[in-house]
Prior knowledge:
By secondary structure, the chain is α+β, with helices and mostly antiparallel strands. The protein has helices at residues 24-30, 66-72; strands at 3-7, 13-17, 50-53, 82-84, 97-100.
Amino acid sequence: MPVVHFDLADGTRRSAEGDNDTPVMFLAKRNEIEAILAECGGACCCATCHVHVHPDWKDRLAPMEDDEQDMLEFAEGVDEYSRLSCQIKLTDDLDGLVVQVPESQY
């Protein structure tokens, strides 16, 4: 089961283990990572699950689709490492994934 490390704005790290094909956002919600609001429930129609993927992991993710890119326009602090955690599905290749939850999510 892949593990995801969530680096929070207060400098702490929370790690959680999940099943393949589970969106990172659902993993965060199940593990009470409160800064991942996920107001739309994973429908990719808000930006309240915005994260910054650690640079070492960016190229390992599936490419971003147009609807995700469109939603990121509504998030604060978007950069080249920004993704919506509802659109990142766990795989064995993502074991150890590191994402930073932006301060703007709090």
